[in-house]
Every structure is written in structure tokens, then in C-alpha cells.
Amino acid sequence: MSNHKKLEDFRQEIDKCVKCGACQAQCAVYKTLKRESTVARGKVAIAEALLDKDLPLNDRFVLDMSQCLLCGSCYDKCPNLVPTDEIVMAARREIAERQGLTTFGKVLTGVIKRPKLMETLVKGGQFFGPFLFKKIPDHSGLRLRFPVPFISQDRAIPEFSDQPFRSRYPELIPGDDDKPLVAFFTGCMINYTYPEVGEALVKVMRFMGFPLQIPQAQGCCGLPALAAGDEETVDLLADANVDAFAADKAEVVVTACASCHAGIGKHYRDMGGDYAVLGDKVVDVLKFLVDNGLVEKLQQLNHKDYKGETLRVTYHDPCHLRTQGITAEPRALLRALPGVEFVEMEGADRCCGLGGTFSVYHYDTSRKIGSRKADGIAASQADVVASACPGCMMQLQDSIQHAGLPQRVSHVLQLIAECLPE
Ligand code: SF4
Ligand code: SF4
User: Fold this and answer.
1) Higher confidence at residue 62 or residue 100?
2) Cα(47) to centroid(ligand 1), Å
3) I need a labelling partner for 274 at 20 to 30 A (CA). Which of 24, 49, 172, 310 fits?
4) Nearest residue by C-alpha to atom 4 in ligand 2
5) Residue nearest ligand 2's atom 2 by CA
6) What is the pLDDT of residues 31-69, one digit of tens each?
7) Does residue 126 surpass a pLDDT of 80?
8) Nearest residue to 91 via CA among 227, 238, 271, 263
9) Cα(421) to centroid of ligand 2, in Å?
10) If you write DSSP's letter for every residue of 234-300 in order, what string do you get?
11) How far is the CA of 38 from the centre of ligand 2 (A)?
12) Mean of pLDDT values over 372-400
């Protein structure tokens, strides 16, 4: 059995909020909406009021709790380390328990817990793609031709892959005899919409000589269900993943998606038991590669100008890696790439505004947050915006498209793979 704390279990943490307001400067939602109930201090206060029965669980409470990116930026800078993102998730569980899931929550969790349904929908998406979507220029993806529930017509959507990543490889890709086995948790976005990121990971791991296990029975990490307050679906998905990875002997499970890193890493550790055993093995692939000497190997590669010119690359920090302290590793790898000039952008550490389902419920706010990110990208004059999270990549593509910018978005792994010999 997993261990999902109730809102009541956060009393001690809630009491630690001294109302200092330091979280205001960190919260992208507050900076956009300028309403106290959207910042950590306000959310903690209304959670406390609900527990004390000073506030009913009404539509206003549900709206306020939905207006959170779960980015953890407030926790990062809170003097008393009040875990507002966890308090918000517990409040959403409380809402789901008392009122049931929202319609979108039901649809979303209904799909992610049924991998076969997900595959069918992806195939349907490919088949009906030309009717549903119009292509927008360059690397920016697709737009809906007409209104469809839950997805804004303004949102740039990545294309579904015609062949999911996991079906492209055997379960075991051999490596050097003296290198330990590494398992790969792909996550849904790499499997269905950004398989090229998974392809890049395979190429880089081959270059490093690590044998790679890609368990076919793995599924969604459960983070979308966690954000929706659906603990039953979280448990179901976590059980399937524990089983899928139980048979392999890998001591390390790498992720190439910051959100999956939080989902199958931090959150499984919090769930305890067998989930924590799996969660303890989880390492972000860029950290893994730096720890295993990839920076030095890249520095030994011949300098090759990128198609005759030096490629100017900047980096966006996904919140789910930044708040885990993984900020230096992606930059070290980018700086070591031959033919790449790394430039910092202003606001690299600011949330891109996706926040998973936040951008579905609050696309206008999400887009405003994204437009500030686009300002930083434009000022950097980079050719490429690199990141380490497919979710951020989707949002960055959307923001770049709306701002009319020329930048390409890439995962750090793709840029590394482009520099490696075939
Ligand atoms: S920074 Fe922390 S202690 Fe200060 S108001 Fe925000 S949540 Fe409360
Ligand atoms: S988790 Fe992020 S969006 Fe939510 S209150 Fe904290 S800073 Fe704001």
C-alpha cells in the first residue's frame, strides 16, 4: 500500500508558514494574476482555513487549488521549507475524495491507466491527424483546425509518433562487459510524441558503452493522476512500474524527462515500500552522464563547427530538475559540445508555465507566463533553446511560436547525439 498523506497530515508544515511573503517573488502564477490566493502563502492559508472549517470546500477553493504549477519554486526559497506543492496536491486529493474528479481529470486518468487505449488514441491521432490538425511552420508542431474539448486551438501540439519509441527497440541493448546495466524509464511524452529524444538517449548510452534495459511493460509514472488528486490511479500505475522494473538487475533507472524524474523518483520515494526502492534508483540521465565522465569525453571530440557556423545554445531549467539541484550538469554538457557556444538567458530558472494540467485549465495564464520566457529567449539571441523535459519543450515551442521567434527547441540529449560519431 502506498502512503498518500491527507491534507490533515500537513498541519505541522502548514503551521510553519510565518506569512513572510518570500514566496511572492518566486511564483509565476502570482506574478501573472496578482491575487493572494494564487501564491504559496495564500494557498497555505486557505488550506488551513478548510481544515479549521473556517472555509467551505466550494468552487472558489477548487479554483484556487487548481491555480498552481506544482513547480516547487516557492519551497525552494521558503525560509521554513513549507512544501506548498505537496499541500496543494493533498488539497486536490481532498477535493477528489469529496467531490470526485473533474471531467478532464476523469478523461486523463482514464487514458493514462490504460496503455492499450493510449496506443489506440495515438494511432487514431495519426489517422485523423490531417483532419484534426493543421501544421504550423518550422519545428513548432500542430494546431487544431476546430475546437476540441480541453485543448486550446491556440496551443502548438507536438505530432504523435508513427511508431512509439519503446516499440523500436528490444528490451535489452547490449553494451560493454565492464559497464553496469542501466534501465530507462521513458515516460509517455518520449514514447508517443518525442521518440527522437529516446533515440538520442540510446545513441549517447551506446557511445558511453552502458548496456540499456527498456522494460516494455512500463507505463505512465502517474504524475498527471497525482496532480489531479486521483491516488487510486497513481497506485495502479506505480504498481505496474514496480513490476515492470522488478525483474531487471539495473541499479540505476535513468529518466530523460524532468517530470518523470519527479514522478517516478521523488514521489515514489514519498510513497514508501517497494515504490521507494524503485524511486531510490532513479537518476536524471544528464546527471548520470556527467557523473560517468561524458563531459571529459565530449571535450576530447574534434571541434566541428555546426554546419559551418558555431551554434549558439541557451538552456531552460525545468522546475522538476532545478528544485532537485540539477542545474550545473546540463550546462556542463552543453559547454563541452564541439561547435556550440553556450549562452545564459535571463530568467532561465523561471517556470515555462506548462505545469501539466495547469495549462489545460488555465491556458491564458500559462501563455502569459510562457511569453515572459519567450522574452528571455529572444534577448539571448540563441539559435537553439535546450531543455531536459519534453513537457517544457512543448511549452517552449508554443511560446516561441506565439512570439514569432526563429529558435529551435531541442533536448540536451539531441544536441549531444548530433555531435557524436555515427
Ligand atoms: S515563503 Fe514560506 S513561510 Fe514565507 S509566506 Fe511563503 S510559504 Fe509562508
Ligand atoms: S508551487 Fe509554483 S505555482 Fe504553486 S504556489 Fe509554489 S511557486 Fe506558485
Assistant:
1) 62
2) 14
3) 172
4) 68
5) 71
6) 999 999 999 999 999 999 999 999 999 999 999 999 999
7) no
8) 227
9) 42
10) HHHHHHHHHHHHHSS--SEEEES-HHHIIIIIIIHHHH-HHHHHHHHHEEEHHHHHHHTTHHHHHHH
11) 8
12) 96
Which residue among 34, 36, 85, 89 is best mutated to probe the pocket of ligand 2, counting the most ligand atoms within 8 A of its Cβ?
Answer: 85
Phi-psi region of 122 (alpha: psi -120 to 50; beta: other; left: phi over 0): alpha
Ligand 2 cavity residues, CB under 6 Å: 26-27, 29, 39-40, 43, 68-74, 84-85
Residue 307 has pLDDT above 70, yes or no: no
Of the candidate ranges 155-169, 278-292, 372-386, the one whose mean pLDDT is the lowest: 155-169
Choice from 20, 29, 76, 77 to test ligand 1 binding pocket (greatest atom count within 8 A of CB):
20
- Going from the N-terminus, what domains does the chain have, and what CATH number goes with each? 7-100 (1.10.1060.10), 294-419 (3.40.50.10700)
Rounded mean pLDDT, 112-135: 64
Residues of the chain above pLDDT 70, percent: 88
Residue type, 44: V
Q: In what helix (H) or strand (E) does residue 359 lie, and over which residues does it extend? A: helix 358-361
What's the rounded Cα separation, in Å, for the pair 288 and 34?
39
Residue 173 has pLDDT above 50, yes or no: yes
